Amino acid sequence: MLVKPCLPLLVIRAKVVGKKTVSNAIKYNIQQIKMFKCPDQVIHAVFTAPSPAACGVTLDLNKEYLFTGKLETGRMYITLCGYNLPWEDLSAAQKKSLTRRYQSGCDCKIIHCTSLPCPISTTDACLWMDWGTNNGRNLACIKSNGSCAWQ
């Protein structure tokens, strides 16, 4: 069986169980509940910048979150630009997509658009430009017929 190597992007459901300042970062100790991407990884902490001005994420202790972040030198880093929401804030469709449909979107990238124009020049990406609406709460970026699209 051929196993794909994990990309540096991780998607995880976890509960925050501790907080500590380490050098120029905040370390949140977590209890991993489910790893949606790179399932062979076990993460015990997420790291973020010390303030929102530096793109740092503020988390509540004893709360479950969906984290998206990058794996760098064995550590998971999260930022304000990532998708880091309390688990309870996810819609039923989002939770279903994560637990049942996520694998079919693993070959797709999501390109975050913060201002127009937002060109996409590849078929393996979906454009995310959900400015103040909840349209994305019911969609998943899925590969179908050789290209990625919101479904």
Automatic annotation (TrEMBL):
Signal peptide annotation: none
InterPro entries per the UniProt record, alphabetical: Netrin_domain, TIMP, TIMP-like_OB-fold, TIMP_C
Disulfide bridge positions per record: 108-148, 113-118, 126-141
GO molecular function terms listed in the Swiss-Prot or TrEMBL record: metalloendopeptidase inhibitor activity; protease binding
Keywords recorded for this protein, A-Z: Disulfide bond, Metalloenzyme inhibitor, Metalloprotease inhibitor, Protease inhibitor, Secreted
Subcellular localization(s) per the UniProt record: Secreted
Cellular component, GO annotation: extracellular matrix; extracellular space
Protein name from the UniProt record: Metalloproteinase inhibitor 2
